[in-house]
Amino acid sequence: RGRRYRNADPAGAEGAGEMNGRPEDRRVVSLVRKVAGITEFFMAVGPPIGTVIWFAVASFGHIVSKGSFNFDAAKEIVTGILIGLGGMPAGYVFGLVPAAVSGIVIGAAQVAFGRLHWPIVLAIGTCVGIRYLFSLGKIMGADFFRMPGGYGVPILTCMAATFLCWGFVQNWYLQSGPS
Q1: Cα separations in angstroms, 2 against 7, 17, 114, 128
Q2: Euclidean distance between CA atoms 20 and 23, whole angstroms
Q3: Angle between the N-to-C axes of helices 152-169 and 88-113, in degrees from 0 to 180, rounded to the nearest 10
């Protein structure tokens, strides 16, 4: 503000060399922001990755269920991947919640424990995929489990998408020394 209202401001922490908030509060807010950043990345990138993986795995499962792999089978896989690319916006409808759950768990674990090892990340993705499988079964009904690839498609999709997203964020917010 201008000079005219200088005396109207009450004396406070501004300019007195004091800091607002306790250090513990600032640390908690910093940790929450770090987890939120990782979760936001998973929510932005995970569903499109998951959509492509879903259609590729489902196409491959359909081919395996036929029992033969030939040129037509390869075309089916490519078609499945292209459908997945076109269906990316729909992937947000089905994949946003699992991506958020994976992001929260990976983010919290990474902020708390540092860099995670890949088997832990695959285990987290598998657990999210199993839960997602049962949620989709309740939403879609019994016919959902008759799809090509059956139970493995949601589990493999969540596991692979979690692993790929973690590949991007695995070095975010790591402690480089005492702070």
Answers
A1: 11, 22, 48, 56
A2: 9
A3: 60
Quick check: pTM over 0.85?
A: no
| Identity of the amino acid at 168 | F
pLDDT in tens, 48-97: 998 888 877 777 766 666 666 666 666 777 777 777 677 778 788 888 99
Q: Which amino acid is at 92?
A: Y
Dihedral in degrees, nearest 10, Cα atoms 52, 54, 60, 63: -120
Angle made by CA atoms 157, 162, 167, in degrees to the nearest 5: 130
Identify which of 137, 128, 161, 156 has the alpha carbon closest to the alpha carbon of residue 60. 156
Q: Which amino acid is at 15?
A: G
